[in-house]
Each structure stands twice: as C-alpha cells, then as structure tokens.
Amino acid sequence: MERNLPAAVTQCFSVVILCTSVADPNWITVRNGTRDEEDYQIFGVTYVVHLNWNVTGNPDSAHLLTHTGIVLLVGMALCCYVAILTGLSAFLIDFIGAKACFKLTYKVPTVLHSATAILCAVAVVLCCSLFALIVSKLKDLKLAEMYAFFGESFYFAIGAACISSTAAGLRICRTTQQRTELHPVQHSSLAEETTHLLGNEGEDHNQAAYT
Of 21, 44, 110, 111, which one is least surrounded by beta carbons within 10 A? Predict the structure, then answer.
C-alpha cells in the first residue's frame, strides 16, 4: 500500500492535541464566585487516575460528583486512551505504508481514522453529560454562588475529533482514487483479452473458409 502523507500528518496533529487534552486535567471547572480565583475544582481524565480508577469511593470533597459522574469520567478516559492508540496506529500505517495485498489492507487505515474520530466524539459527549450532571448537582445543593464551565481540554478534544474526521476523509479519498486507478487496468486487460479471442476466432474462420 502506498503512503498517505496528508492523512498521516493530519492524524499526527490529532494525536498530539488529544494527548494534550488528556495531560491537561481541566475538562470541567467549578468555581466559587464569592471567593478568590484560586477556590475552584477541576474534573477531567486525569481525575480518574487520581482516584486510582476507584468508582466506589468518595467522589470528591464537595460531593459534586455522584458515582454516575465517576463512571462518565472513566468512560472519557477509556475513549481518550483508546483513541490515542488507534490514531497512532493509523498514523504509522499511513506514514510508513503497508507492503501487503491491497484488497486486505486498504480498509484498515480508514477504520482506524474513523474509530479515532468516533472515540473523540464519544469522549466529548460524555463530558457534556458530566457537565449537565454537575450543574444539576449544584442546583440540588442550592449552591448559587458556584458555577461550572468547560475547560480548555474539552475544546482540545473537539479539535481532535474534527482533525481525525478530516484524516478519515483524506484516507477515504485516497482509497477511492487507488481503487479507480486499478479498475481501468482491469478493464484494459479484459479488452485486450477479448480482442485476442476475437482475432483467433477470425483466423479460425478464415482457415475453415479457405479449406
């Protein structure tokens, strides 16, 4: 399989942005508007690592997260980590190329690019669900002075999803181009074979008539 550098470079940017969103813990910020700016809580993928992947313990000191919130965080973390693996695999295949049968391998990079985009989108959706859960919890606790907003990692994840979708589109376009390049060769071979058969039949007919 030929290399696809546009898709590889695009996916590389997506993986870098996604790694940044995972390393930066600020997916959702809860701030107390009546106190200083340092009084806030942040929730993100690394928060799950801080809890040692424990979904049964005390979620947080302010009890803003229920166990459902922890499950959502775990889902976000899994989506992000798997998306990094699939995106990196797609990048390596497109950058290095695969010397194998075209019919067996041309779908693999497309599936990996698409899976990366879908996983990033799922992580964003889970984050939105977590945000709605936190806002609802703030209303239930009647904490009017506290408010929540999305952090920069949330927007990084959106960017990673968009870039991965672009990489998938580039991969699909290249695959379509490669398939269309193969079909004319097949049609040309078929036409040559047909012409050859017709020529042989004509020679046989002439020989029969001469006899």
Answer: 111
